[in-house]
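Inputs:
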Amino acid sequence: MSWTISAELIPGLARGAAVLGTGGGGDPYIGALLAAQALREHGDVTVVTLDEVPDDALVLTVAMMGAPTVMVEKLPSLTEVVAPVHALSASLGRPVTHIACAEVGGVNSTIPIAAAAALGLPLIDADGMGRAFPELQMVLPTLYGVDASPLAFSDEKGNTGVLTTVDNSWTERIARVACVEMGCSVMISGFPMSGAQAREALVADSLSLCREIGDGIEAARAEKADPVERTVQLLGGRELFSGKVVDVERATTTGFARGRARIDGVDASLELSFQNEHLMAALDGVTLVTTPDLIMVLEHDSGEPITTEGLRYGQRVRVISAPSDDRWHSPEALAMVGPGYFGYEVPSHRFDGTAETPAPDAPEVAA
Amino acid sequence: MHIGIDVGGTNTDAVLMDGTTTLAAVKHATTPDVTDGIVQAIGELRSGHHFDGEQITAVMIGTTHFINALVQAKRLAPTAALRLGLPATRALPPLVDWPAELVEAISARSYLAHGGYEFDGRPISPIDPDELRAHAEDMRVNGIRSVAISSVFSPVNHDLEVEAARIVGEVLGPDVAISLSHEIGRIGLLERENATIINAALRELASEIVDGLTAAVRKQGIEAPIFLSQNDGTLMDEDYVRLYPVATFASGPTNSMRGAALTSGLATCAVVDIGGTTADIGLLINGFPRETANEVKVAGIRTNFRMPDVLSIGIGGGSIVDEETAEVGPASVGYKLMTEALVFGGSTLTATDIAVAAGRASIGDASKVAHLDPVFVERVLERIGERIAEAVDRMRTSPEPIPVVAVGGGSILLSDELPIFGAVHRPDNYAVANAIGASIAQVGGEIDKVYAIEPGRREEAIAEVRAEAIDKAIAAGASPASVAIVDFDEVPIPYLPGNATRIRVKAVGDLDMGGLR
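Outputs:
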């Protein structure tokens, strides 16, 4: 059933998205403000479920590419949010009918809302990851053979480019260079899909899930119940660990914030490895959970999600894990977003701790 | 000799100091006309320990005037916010997330203009003098008396803010105050801009208050220069206050912490200030409060100026004690302690009753709590100790041991030994700690900018920034020999190429009082 996003829903939705963002995506404040402002100015946005999207729809994802740190200084103009959609529509020679989120987490769950509001288009209750990952090609549509290109990117000055590339990793490489040249914060639109393709490739109901989590945390606080436990229930996950952050080590290499955090509990110690997002959790040296399943750090009592940039000595936190979309566990998917891709020499571990060895007869998902 | 005065919402404290020795101290209720209270306080100091006007080398004042004016939305100037950044930033214009009543209280007008820089210092667009003149003309027509100018990435390059101020100033004339964002905040455009707008709205009031304070001090025959406390505890002179009143906002808690530390002889410590409803915990590093890394909301406005990082937990003298669980707070009888607590004949078991039952304090009627089970009393006090210790541990930034200083009326709740941290320090003379904190004569200079550090040039770049901060401290009046770097922070900015690094350096030295006269 379709529903409507108005400015009042944004805080809950943004909080839920920050949980699913697994520590990445930057400070959600600007993205939330941008969406709320766009909704006030252009009116509410209709959200449709994947079932309701007609087969011949033209669906595009909209996202911000670049440094969230830049976006808190060089604020968006909204024209660059809609420009790549117009450019792509012109290039494809067809009107765009629906907007979708490429990922959930941080600004990229709220920018598509602003885009949909400004364009007067419906937004699909779905996204390309069911979580957040750092690179453009890391979406389920890639596994279904959906091309990222033609992909359009725009800055606030009015520069717009449309890329046609041989594969989605090239789209990422070329767009990243343009992004830096254009001031390290651009809006992109791509992954043109039919309604039928979107239904097959996207993760369904993720905006509703963001809302449920955000509202659930708020409601649990009001009822004096445990917001962390509520979140774990909603995600069908488990609580991994509870303790105090005792060490955070970070370095920025090749543009990504890599690092490790150690959390001490009563008689054990958990190590988190992150690269923008939390990617691996190990208890006293034993791997518990890895990407692609979700690892999230929440403030101990309030359940407020903590970004990898926001981790600090002394914080009392709880670490939870949750299953990612099942399609992330195929061998092709693990090659793209598994621990090995990020340089961790461990087999991937599911949220419940089971190690996975990709079976040779694993389901083929690439089209 | 010098004088420290702290004008709080409730009390005005004053101390006469010789170096770090307190010669006289007074405390009384803050008067509606603040200057009267100051005149009175100085008079009382003089009767406590005689001095002549010319013996006083400096008067340091901590005041909550400015933050109160904002919170009450009173005496604020009609203010314009001008942002340089077009074609970027249009979606979120200045004042975007402000409470409506404050927008109204400052008769705010918001303007967008071309200008601003990219993260690496390349221009977004050149400024357009005609556009700026048209905006300034509109401000003039609408009776704007103070202007806040912000520009995208001005912490990287502030040239355009300065140039825009010149152009706008030509139209508006010298009577309209102009505040520039790079002098006030750090990276984070909306937060820095908000702090600048608040500063702009307070500029007229700042001049009035400085004139009032000066007149009050001069009336006592003191011709010495007057300084005000800043958020970090360093001092600013009159001229600086007229330009940056916003820098006084958090001087209250800062002076209290620094005063507590000075009287207990510790430069690096955790200060636990326990009042009636809450325990406020802050950290002093080399005599300066550890500042928040996050955005701070002031009167509902999101800002990012430096404020001491204070953690408040709901434990105080008036906290209600659960007779089942032995947990304390966060509910409190508050100001009704004198009637509600058991020792005062009331019917609510409060933390104060527990302290009396344990023999830690003799207030009220101890027989009213004689029935309490000593085991229960001990359990409550243990829980208080554990929770305070946990909060202090949360505040410190490393597992290094740190001494704990306890102050405030509710500090009787704390035993002499705290879990994790050991002995608790309890300074004398705490009643006037705020004024003592204000009297600490130090001035500083701070640099906080984003630098693109070329490979192999890191050491050189850091040395330049350090030298710049030291020069700034000396320019603020520090005696050159005493200046030292008290804070250094280097943070690589994620997702950015070219080793963009935010460097923050603070240099502080002793106020050169000899050079003042």
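Remarks. The radius of gyration of chain B is 25 Å. DSSP finds 13 helices and 24 strands in chain B.
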